[in-house]
Amino acid sequence: MTLNHPRSRMILENVLKHFPESVVMSQISKRPIKKELAKRINNLFVESIVTCRSPEETLSYLDGLLSDTEKIMLSKRLAIAYLLTKGVSYRTINQTIKVSNPTIRAVDRMLSYKGEGIKKILEKITKSEKWSKFFEELADILVETVGKSKGSNWSTTNSILRQRKIEKKALF
């Protein structure tokens, strides 16, 4: 039986409705596991991250656990979440981070329905001096990307960039 067969499609749809939307991804097996086992596996994952005692240990752990693609995917989701919380448009995020609108929409929905945890973490990160320079550089990239795209006013963009440089020099 293939997925085009009505019975196969019905079985698959029945199985998938037991999973939250965020869990159903193209790379995850469609074969369900018991809810209690899934919960214990999730708790193990969370506990393993919490157990890491330093950024270096966490990085080493994640390097061993995640593929390069998975790390990029998670990093981009975090960047999308940050930019959305700052009111950046889908178009700008799409052009800057090179992600599709459906990906941005999925992160936006996640922030709307169950994003309190990520919002709190992003707040903590943005208060850190260590990350403030990165966010400033990201803002510059956004201005340059959108401001110098087709149909935009380049002189306004250049004046914004000059003003940002003046403000940065004043800080140092």
Structural write-up:
The chain contains nine helices and no strands. By secondary structure, it is mainly α. The protein folds into three domains: 8-65, no CATH class; 67-126; 128-172. The radius of gyration is 21 Å and the shape is globular.
Name a few traits of the molecule:
172 residues; 3 domains; mainly alpha; 74% helix; single chain
Please sum up the structure shown:
By secondary structure, this protein is an all-alpha fold. It has three domains: 8-65, no CATH class; 67-126; 128-172. It is 74% helix and 0% strand.
Walk me through the topology.
Layout lengths: L5 H11 L18 H17 L3 H11 L2 H18 L4 H8 L3 H14 L1 H12 L1 H19 L6 H18 L1
Domain unit count = 3
Estimate what percentage of residues fall within beta strands.
under 5%
| Main beta sheet | none
Count of individual helical segments: 9
Low-confidence residue ranges: 1-5, 15-26
Total number of strands: 0
Reading the helices and strands in chain order gives HHHHHHHHH
Average pLDDT number:
75
- Percent range for helical residues? over 70%
**Structural class computed from helices and strand pairing:** mainly alpha
Q: What is the straight-line distance between the termini? A: 68 Å
Radius of gyration: 21 Å
